[in-house]
């Protein structure tokens, strides 16, 4: 611990630096908010801030020592009560109790039980992260005692739960770092007595306990599992409920496309959220970044109400990658969350969460996605195309809500031609951005511009009349000459916007990137975002364009570097050609009623909820009420989804790899919301059974949810059968003979392997 | 790892008491790494590795979870789709061996009936601390129709073999069943993943091993 403690003079300087910001909660919150180098948590005493946020909350500065004195004496009495015999076993021996008596009230018995509990805790304390601090013996015993006392005092939590130790660890470390040695302070005449009180090294353990138990006041709910087992008592599983809420309600509200995608690929949110939440993101970020995240959580959310939205914000930042990910890719991404780069370090997730709390709707989601990725998520086309057959197993909430409105048949999807202007533009900008990162930016810009042009031309050729008309576009909005005029005006403005972006791209290209590369990348992103925006507007003509005087794109951009816009570079005519082409195409897209069924029907945003950031406010509440499942209905809706024969081709955890050419290899999940012991026919092995001549019920349940053509033969053959008669044939392992003996001993298969189905 | 094409994908779960070495078995098998002070698992981790059996490539998706008995928030998700389970105990801690029956019950309650189970006595390097005789565990495994092996994630002995055995066993079951139905059923080729899958997968694979 001495290793960790700062020198007295440094601690003192940090104390003074902290107080410089003020001592009220509001002062400190303000100072911590941006978490830059001047934050009192960084330049000052983080432990003082944490104590202020969590322990002193309403107490004036003069009362701080009193608050601590109280909690410290409480801790002392707890130690006396519960640790006496553990710390001083000789006192136990001096008692007149028979150590061998089988008396539950005997202190011997208590100590024995306590030692078992402590052994369990100690096993994890030994495995705290690599930081040498945690492996000092004094620190380990401190952490062990705190956890033990906490569990003694809170039997309702159900004893020690793995993960608590990693919540406590950073607290002890932060408190210990700032601590001052009272003796050293006595040499210093100018020492602030309050400082010595607050930072007294003798009370590191006491104060850590106080902070930890305050935190656990809320966080303990993340560790509750309920009394029954999961199958008998699913409702009591707080973390699972919370995870489902985050996915099905919170995320659904702000990014329906992503929420649906996660459901379609069958990622159960608790798989990754359990660690995110229980450790307060402790394993997701590097230690110092984690501390700054906690700074902001403690400052603005001491009751941990924003945790759900922080999770949502984290998902939003990686939403593009997630949308293209299958089950295992997505899971690996979320279990190994990509480190957010400065200046948008993890602490900014708290800002995002606050923003989402105030904008709990699609527009709020769009704003954040746009802010961090430069792309706005109104264009499902591309992602849907690239991620396996879309909308498989999309059988629950959303389909019911949208069902009548969206012409989502597999034929419609198969008819899907390469995108439309929107997809072309989006594809091109995406490529551009990717390549801009990988290669030199110059080349990337030139290529991208060229590509857009080529695509446009190709698109124009390809876009022959054959595409099915009649899917009404804006059916409630008759196309009159007024509309045509409006659309023409709108298109001109969109064209102008595109032109501006193209100009900027050209300038970037011609500037040869003299200057700041980051700035160039940013400019690229902005240009891409603008193109994206135009694409969005083209896609949904009901979007109002931003006021000319107040270009929305600029209000939204992440600081647009002005030097790149400087009109010094002569314009090439090429991009203008592209632009006018694009606008021409756009017009035809808009005026013809055959907008892609895919684009239209995708489960992103209902038309009435306007996803574009600048039109955010008006559209929103509908979104809330119409689209978001109520929290109360959550578990049932989830259950019904699970009970339906969902066919998701990428459901990885099955026995068999699927063939994309036969995308529907539906693996029926175990029936019912909670998988109980399933029969073979219901299991993921069931496809191994002999073929059934009758179509399974699973087959018929959702005919439209299956691709009607591609690879249907093999797909059908691998579908799980659900014929009850199979259960009698279900003995699976009997005939297997393996020579893979163990210990070189030739055993019959029955001896080696579990050839009998386990009996209940 | 060179490419991510595979003929079969098997999900295998690691279960057993806290501290018996599940995570290290996983890291030894998938990354050939061992960490004496590895952190306790919170929630789940998973990793993949492909092996060859006969001419087939089998991709093992191995899931690892917290061993703490009460830590059951994710049970159903954890066992869903699992076709194999390594039930791990610590040969130097008898309690972890005694708890094997509880884990078997858990498997009975939550996993597929036909899941292939292998009992794994880990930490076989701790010879001087052995608390569970090999013969006793072998007998237990045989009585309960489990396969059995002793491993050491620390010195890597038998780790490869343990996974190889269970994956081969699963493969034999799967392929014998598939052959049986070969008349009417289309064949296993249908399960081969095509290249379209390869790109994304490959990328992640690298990430996961970083």
From TrEMBL, chain A:
<feature type="compositionally biased region" description="Polar residues">
    <location>
        <begin position="696"/>
        <end position="707"/>
    </location>
</feature>
<dbReference type="InterPro" id="IPR000195">
    <property type="entry name" value="Rab-GAP-TBC_dom"/>
</dbReference>
<feature type="region of interest" description="Disordered">
    <location>
        <begin position="585"/>
        <end position="678"/>
    </location>
</feature>
<keyword id="KW-0343">GTPase activation</keyword>
<feature type="compositionally biased region" description="Low complexity">
    <location>
        <begin position="602"/>
        <end position="619"/>
    </location>
</feature>
<feature type="domain" description="Rab-GAP TBC">
    <location>
        <begin position="40"/>
        <end position="301"/>
    </location>
</feature>
<dbReference type="InterPro" id="IPR035969">
    <property type="entry name" value="Rab-GAP_TBC_sf"/>
</dbReference>
<dbReference type="GO" id="GO:0005096">
    <property type="term" value="F:GTPase activator activity"/>
</dbReference>
<feature type="region of interest" description="Disordered">
    <location>
        <begin position="696"/>
        <end position="729"/>
    </location>
</feature>
<dbReference type="Pfam" id="PF00566">
    <property type="entry name" value="RabGAP-TBC"/>
</dbReference>
<protein>
    <submittedName>
        <fullName>Rab-GTPase-TBC domain-containing protein</fullName>
    </submittedName>
</protein>
<feature type="compositionally biased region" description="Low complexity">
    <location>
        <begin position="635"/>
        <end position="651"/>
    </location>
</feature>
From TrEMBL, chain B:
<dbReference type="InterPro" id="IPR001806">
    <property type="entry name" value="Small_GTPase"/>
</dbReference>
<feature type="region of interest" description="Disordered">
    <location>
        <begin position="188"/>
        <end position="210"/>
    </location>
</feature>
<dbReference type="InterPro" id="IPR027417">
    <property type="entry name" value="P-loop_NTPase"/>
</dbReference>
<keyword id="KW-0449">Lipoprotein</keyword>
<dbReference type="InterPro" id="IPR005225">
    <property type="entry name" value="Small_GTP-bd"/>
</dbReference>
<comment type="similarity">
    <text>Belongs to the small GTPase superfamily. Rab family.</text>
</comment>
<protein>
    <submittedName>
        <fullName>GTP-binding protein ypt3</fullName>
    </submittedName>
</protein>
<keyword id="KW-0342">GTP-binding</keyword>
<dbReference type="GO" id="GO:0005525">
    <property type="term" value="F:GTP binding"/>
</dbReference>
<dbReference type="GO" id="GO:0031410">
    <property type="term" value="C:cytoplasmic vesicle"/>
</dbReference>
<dbReference type="GO" id="GO:0003924">
    <property type="term" value="F:GTPase activity"/>
</dbReference>
<dbReference type="GO" id="GO:0012505">
    <property type="term" value="C:endomembrane system"/>
</dbReference>
<keyword id="KW-0636">Prenylation</keyword>
<feature type="compositionally biased region" description="Basic and acidic residues">
    <location>
        <begin position="198"/>
        <end position="210"/>
    </location>
</feature>
<keyword id="KW-0472">Membrane</keyword>
<keyword id="KW-0547">Nucleotide-binding</keyword>
<dbReference type="Pfam" id="PF00071">
    <property type="entry name" value="Ras"/>
</dbReference>
<dbReference type="InterPro" id="IPR050209">
    <property type="entry name" value="Rab_GTPases_membrane_traffic"/>
</dbReference>
């Amino acid at each position: 611990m001495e290793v960790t403690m700062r020198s007295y003079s440094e601690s003192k300087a940090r104390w003074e630096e902290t107080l410089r910001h003020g001592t009220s909660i509001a002062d400190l919150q303000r100072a911590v908010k941006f978490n830059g180098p001047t934050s009192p948590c960084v330049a000052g005493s983080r432990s003082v801030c944490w104590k202020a946020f969590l322990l002193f909350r309403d107490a004036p500065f003069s009362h701080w020592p009193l608050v601590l004195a109280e909690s410290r004496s409480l801790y002392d009495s707890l130690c006396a009560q519960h640790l006496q015999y553990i710390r001083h076993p000789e006192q136990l021996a001096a008692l007149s109790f028979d150590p061998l008596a089988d008396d539950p009230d005997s202190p011997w018995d208590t100590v024995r039980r306590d030692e078992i509990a402590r052994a369990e805790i100690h096993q994890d304390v030994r495995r705290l992260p690599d930081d040498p601090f945690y492996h000092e013996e004094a620190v380990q015993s401190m952490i062990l005692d705190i956890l033990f006392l906490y569990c003694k005092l809170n039997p309702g939590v159900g004893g020690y739960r793995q993960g608590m130790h990693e919540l406590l660890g950073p607290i002890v470390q932060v408190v210990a770092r700032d601590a001052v040695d009272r003796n050293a302070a006595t040499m210093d005449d100018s020492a602030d007595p309050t400082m010595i009180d607050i930072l007294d090294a003798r009370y590191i353990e006491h104060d850590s306990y106080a902070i930890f138990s305050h935190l656990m006041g809320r966080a303990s709910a993340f560790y509750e599992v309920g009394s029954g087992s999961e199958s008998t008592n699913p409702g009591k599983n707080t973390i699972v409920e919370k995870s489902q809420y985050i996915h099905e309600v919170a995320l659904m509200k702000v990014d329906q496309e992503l929420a649906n995608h996660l459901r379609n690929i069958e990622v159960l949110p608790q798989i990754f959220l359990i660690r995110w939440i229980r450790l307060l993101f402790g394993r997701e970020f590097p230690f110092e970044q984690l501390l700054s995240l906690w700074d902001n959580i403690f400052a603005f959310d001491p009751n941990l109400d924003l945790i759900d939205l922080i999770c949502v914000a984290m998902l939003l930042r990686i939403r593009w990658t997630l949308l293209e990910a299958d089950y295992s890719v997505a899971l690996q991404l979320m279990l190994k969350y990509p480190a957010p780069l400065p200046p948008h370090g993890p602490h900014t997730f708290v800002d995002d969460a606050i923003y989402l709390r105030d904008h709990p709707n699609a527009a709020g989601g769009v704003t954040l996605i746009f802010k961090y990725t430069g792309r706005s998520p109104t264009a499902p086309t591309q992602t849907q195309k690239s991620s396996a057959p879309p909308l498989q197993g999309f059988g629950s909430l959303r389909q019911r809500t949208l069902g009548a409105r969206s012409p989502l048949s597999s034929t419609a999807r198969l008819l899907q031609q390469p995108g439309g202007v929107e997809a072309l533009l989006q594809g091109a900008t995406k490529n551009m951005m990717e390549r801009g990162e990988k290669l030199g930016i110059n080349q990337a810009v030139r290529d991208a511009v060229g590509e857009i042009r080529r695509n446009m031309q190709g698109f124009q050729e390809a876009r022959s009349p054959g595409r099915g008309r009649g899917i009404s576009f804006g059916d409630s909005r008759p196309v009159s000459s007024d509309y045509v005029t409006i659309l023409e005006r709108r298109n001109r403005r969109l064209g102008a916007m595109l032109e501006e972006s193209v100009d900027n791209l050209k300038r970037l290209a011609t500037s040869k990137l003299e200057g700041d590369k980051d700035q160039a990348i940013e400019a690229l992103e902005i240009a891409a975002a603008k193109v994206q925006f135009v694409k969005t507007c083209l896609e949904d003509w009901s979007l109002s364009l931003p006021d000319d005087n107040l270009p929305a794109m600029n209000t939204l951009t992440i600081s647009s570097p002005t030097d790149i816009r400087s009109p010094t570079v002569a314009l090439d005519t090429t991009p203008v050609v592209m632009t006018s082409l694009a606008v021409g195409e756009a017009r035809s897209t808009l005026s013809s009623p055959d907008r892609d069924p895919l684009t239209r029907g995708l489960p992103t945003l209902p038309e009435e909820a306007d996803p574009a950031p600048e039109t955010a406010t008006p559209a929103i509440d509908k979104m809330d009420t119409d689209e978001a499942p109520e929290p109360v209905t959550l578990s049932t809706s989830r259950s019904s989804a699970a009970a339906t024969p969902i066919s998701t081709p990428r459901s990885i955890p099955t026995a068999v790899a699927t063939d994309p050419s036969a995308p529907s290899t539906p693996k029926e999940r175990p029936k019912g919301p909670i998988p109980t012991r399933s029969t073979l026919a219901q299991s993921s092995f069931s496809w191994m059974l002999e073929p059934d001549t009758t179509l399974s019920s699973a087959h018929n349940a959702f005919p439209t949810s299956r691709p009607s053509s591609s690879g249907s033969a093999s797909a059908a053959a691998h579908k799980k059968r659900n014929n009850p008669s199979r259960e009698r044939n279900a003995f699976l392992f009997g005939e297997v003979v393996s020579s893979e003996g163990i210990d070189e001993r030739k055993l019959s298969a029955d001896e080696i392997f579990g050839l009998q189905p386990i009996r209940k | 790892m060179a490419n991510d094409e595979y003929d079969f994908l098997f999900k295998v779960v690691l279960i057993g008491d806290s501290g018996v070495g599940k995570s290290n078995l996983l890291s030894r098998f998938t990354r050939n790494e061992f960490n004496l002070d590895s952190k306790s698992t919170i929630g789940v981790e998973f990793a993949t590795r492909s092996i060859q059996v006969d001419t087939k490539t089998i991709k093992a998706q191995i899931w690892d979870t917290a061993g703490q008995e009460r830590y059951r928030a994710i049970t159903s998700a954890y066992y869903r789709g699992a076709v194999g389970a390594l039930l791990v105990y610590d040969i130097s801690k008898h309690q972890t061996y005694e708890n094997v029956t509880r884990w078997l019950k858990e498997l009975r309650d939550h996993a597929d009936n036909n899941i292939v189970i292998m009992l794994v006595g880990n930490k076989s390097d701790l010879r001087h601390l052995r608390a569970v005789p090999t013969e006793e565990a072998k007998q237990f495994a045989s009585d309960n129709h489990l396969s059995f092996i002793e491993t050491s994630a620390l010195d890597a002995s038998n780790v490869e073999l343990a996974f190889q055995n269970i994956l081969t066993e699963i493969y034999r079951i799967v392929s014998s069943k598939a052959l049986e139905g070969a008349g009417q059923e289309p064949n296993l080729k249908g399960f081969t993943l095509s290249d379209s899958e390869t790109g994304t997968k490959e990328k992640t694979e690298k990430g996961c091993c970083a």
